[in-house]
Design brief:
Layout lengths: L1 H6 L3 E2 L8 H15 L10 H14 L3 E5 L2 H16 L3 E4 L4 H4 L4 H4 L4 E4 L9 H5 L7 E5 L12 H14 L2 E6 L6 H4 L3 H5 L4 E5 L10 E5 L1 H13 L8 H8 L2 H22 L6 E3 L7 E6 L3 H15 L1 E2 L4 E2 L6 E6 L2 H4 L3 H15 L2
Parallel strand pairs: 1-11, 3-4, 3-5, 5-6, 6-7
Antiparallel strand pairs: 2-8, 7-8, 9-10, 10-13, 12-13
Helix pairs in contact: 4-11
Length: 359
């Protein structure tokens, strides 16, 4: 029902404008012709390797590896770190994707065990990590943290964790699914943010707009081990070309847009000050995403969303139930949809929404 209703809307508030298959395939074909792109064969090919090297250089790593899925990428990176240390213990925040959204694959496949670190609703610090007395093989830190509205740790806190892991011989891995969105708040280059992480994963579709896929970054020896393990898991698809091209053809433009998206997020927060029924988390923007809390249950929020979609062809997103019975939240990624939406139209939507919340 919601998928069909969303497809009928002419305006989606969160996210980026999605091209139809015909539109994106046409753009990919033109880009391939203009750049004389050739297929890779099982991951081997000059064009793919150049893209892997480009992303690795941007983040300051020796090598990069295109992987068809982030769900394949991250557990493999952590498993390799554990194997190297003959220790199965991995520490991560309880809101981590591996912990919440991968059907407990790490556990059922006997890859490693997880120690949850810190308060589920806040970023975590070195003190939180040191609260566990166990010997830890690897630590995962997500930048920014999606499940808590895109929060980021303070730069000093992040550096303290990097220093501790380096001193203790702990493999520090970055879940950078939305790393591209972290640079604007930190005001630092991607390589500086990644410095101190032994490995990193970045998405090629979330902020970049590709068809799918991810990149694993690390030193050459680590990447070569990961390449073999991706093959063992069935990740060695014949052609990566469609996924890599769909990301590579717009990679530079998407990254160049990130400062404007963060600025638009700051403008959105200023507008929200006039709407007390709509509460953003975090309280101040740290990335171009947020959770927008509504004082109604998810069931009622869905009914309100569907009414707006039906009557005005405007899509608000997918409400989730919050901790309180009469509270729900919308996860909003501030993409080019909101970037190009006028303040006047946005206020019209907020006026309508606020009226529905009290009716």
């Amino acid at each position: 029902m919601s998928t069909e209703l969303r497809s009928q809307c002419t305006l989606s508030v969160p996210g980026n404008h999605e091209l139809s298959p015909a539109e994106i395939f046409r753009q990919m074909a033109d880009w391939c012709q203009n750049h004389q792109i050739k297929h890779d064969i099982y991951g081997q090919g000059d064009d793919l390797q150049q893209f892997e090297t480009k992303v690795a250089d941007l983040l300051g790593y020796e090598a990069g590896l295109f992987v068809i899925s982030g769900t394949m990428t991250q557990p493999t990176a952590l498993q390799l770190a554990c194997m190297a240390r003959k220790n199965p213990v991995v520490a991560m925040h309880p809101s981590s994707h591996i912990y919440l959204h991968e059907a407990q694959g790490y556990l059922l496949q006997h890859r490693f065990t997880v120690l949850p670190v810190g308060n589920p609703h806040q970023t975590w610090s070195l003190t939180d990590l040191q609260a566990w007395p166990d010997d830890i093989a690897a630590v995962l830190y997500e930048l920014p943290m999606r499940e808590i509205g895109g929060q980021l740790p303070e730069w000093e806190d992040l550096n303290a964790i990097k220093a501790h892991c380096r001193e203790q011989g702990i493999h520090l891995h970055m879940d950078g699914a939305r790393l591209w969105e972290a640079k604007a708040w930190y005001g630092r280059e991607y390589s500086e943010i990644a410095d101190g992480f032994d490995s990193a994963y970045v998405s090629l579709y979330k902020g970049i707009g590709g068809l799918g896929g991810s990149m694993l970054l690390g030193d050459q020896a680590f990447i070569e081990k990961a390449r073999l393990w991706m093959q063992r898991q069935g990740g060695n698809v014949y052609h990566r070309t469609p996924y890599a091209v769909s990301a590579a053809m717009q990679f530079d433009q998407r990254l160049a847009l990130m400062p404007a998206l963060f600025e638009r997020t700051q403008q959105l927060y200023r507008i929200l000050q006039d709407y007390p029924l709509l509460t953003p988390n975090p309280a101040a923007p740290q990335a171009n995403m947020l959770h927008l809390y509504l004082p109604v249950s998810a069931e009622k929020a869905m009914a309100i969303r569907d009414r707006l979609a039906t009557e005005q062809k405007i899509w608000l997103g997918n409400p989730q139930q919050a901790a309180l019975p009469e509270q729900s939240l919308l996860e909003w990624y501030v993409g080019d949809n909101l970037l190009h939406l006028s303040d006047e139209k946005l206020r019209e939507i907020f006026d309508w929404l606020s009226g529905e919340l009290v009716s």
